[in-house]
Amino acid sequence: WILASGNSNGCKSSSVAGTDEKERFCFRKLYVTKDGGKSFTNIRNYVVQYEWAPESDNNQDLVYATVHSVQEGNQKFGFWDQFVDFVASDDYFSNTKVVVEYGNRFIFGEHNYVFVAAVNPHHETSVNLMITRDSGMDKKFQKAKLPVEVLEHSYTILDTSEGSVFLHVNHNIQSGGTSTGNVYISDASGMSYSLSLPFNHRDKGGKCDFEKVEGLEGIYLANFVDEDEKDKEAQSSEQAAVSVGEQKKSRKNRGTNKDKAKIKTVITFDKGGIWSYLDAPSVDAKGNPTNCKGGGDQGCHLHLHGITDAFGPFYSLESATGIIMATGSLGNHLHDRLGEINTYLSRDAGLTWKEVAKGSHIYEYGDHGGLIVMAFDEGPTDHVLYTWDE
User: Which residue has the higher pLDDT, 293 or 354?
Assistant: First the structure.
């Protein structure tokens, strides 16, 4: 069985619009097929998002969706809307139950979590995060107890794999949309939150430099922006202050921005209780001393690229326990400049690191980490490197 969606004829040019009066308008239509795609049945119109119910609901006919309550006119796409609700149906929308009124976006997490962003009907740029771990259509949602109000496009669910929730909140979306937000961790219920890591780096699409080390509990890597250093840089150069906010696709151009932002990498081994800098390797890939010593915020450490840019991010697999690969640089903060980026490996889940190759590479694991392959990605290459002994 498959759920699929498509736009009405009204979303096309007028010359190909259907003869149906309603088809003159543009809206998204939801379909279901029970014969592997041979035939589709339209079951709901004006749909925003849809998903089959998770296995924990134990109902193969149950569908969750966010839909417009007003089924007329052109559908608005990509906006918060007080006339959208989070609904459920177990008879393919012959009957519909509103589960969360004003619910615009939803996501299913591990451990039965369901998260719904519900719009404030009196202020559409403000949303409440609603959470439940109940099963079935009769879910009872509660508002997350956050230290601050959640604003439009201002949160990302980072991880629910260990029962509690890591939540990234962008507090500054209305004041220019900075590239940082705070990371909060919930209690066991998933309802109450406390601050774990401030100024976590993110991009405009909501991707955050925050990753769990797979296969082990309580270990996470993250990048944060040193706000004190960024403020000092802005005061010393008006031009620097302008470049911090620019988003460039070119790696060379972005290098300037990332240096100005003073992005730094930290790791936690106790599920966000304490975050520490990464110790730099004592020698580089050629056996030369790195002369990079610690020393707190102003010392020299290893800093790694996350998923918010084009270089290889920190990467682990549950089947390759304890192995992490990443690209990055040594110093007081992360650099993007070609020639300063190298490739690193940890065999002990991030406790120690080794520089394994000069330059930026892409990488993958095989045979539970017994095989590691990587290829140079700063330009064309005609060979792939591999190792059987990490």
Answer: 354
CA distance 241 to 245: 8
Characterize 59-72 residue by residue with b for buried, 16 or more Cβ atoms within 10 angstroms of its Cβ, and e for exposed: beebbbbbbbeeee
Stated pTM of the model: 0.79
DSSP 1-34: -EEEEEE-GGGS-GGG--SSSGGGS--EEEEEES
Residue type, 175: S
Whose tokens are 């980072």? That residue is 158
User: 181 with 207: CB under 8 angstroms?
Assistant: no
Q: What is the pLDDT of residue 13?
A: 67
From 268, 238, 266, 244, select the one nearest 257 (Cα to Cα).
Answer: 244
Nearest by Cα to 211 from 126, 129, 272 = 272
| Owner of token pair 């339209």 | 42
pLDDT single digits (tens) 342-369: 999 999 999 999 999 998 899 999 888 8
What is residue 370's predicted lDDT score, i.e. its pLDDT?
A: 85
List b or e across 174-192, with b for residues whose CB sees 16 or more CB atoms inside 10 angstroms: eeeebbbbbbbbbeeebbe
CA 260 to CA 238: how far, in whole Å?
12
What number is the average pLDDT over the span 244-253? Answer: 29
Give burial (CB, 10 Å; 0-12/13-18/19+) of 383: exposed
Mean pLDDT, the chain, rounded, equals 84
The residues, any chain, with a CB within 8 Å of residue 386's CB and separated by 6 or more, are 371, 372, 373, 374
- The pair of three-digit structure tokens given for residue 61, joined into one six-digit string: 């006919």
The answer to whether residue 216 scores a pLDDT higher than 60 is yes
pLDDT tens track for 76-119: 898 888 999 999 999 999 999 999 999 999 999 988 899 999 98
Joined tokens for residue 377: 């990605």
30 backbone dihedrals φ, ψ, rounded to 5°? -100, 135
Among candidates 347, 351, 257, which has minimal Cα distance to 309? 257
User: Which residues are CB-neighbours of 205 under 8 A, at least 6 positions away?
Assistant: none
In order of 103, 171, 231, 242, 243, the CA distances from 238 in angstroms are 42, 24, 11, 7, 9
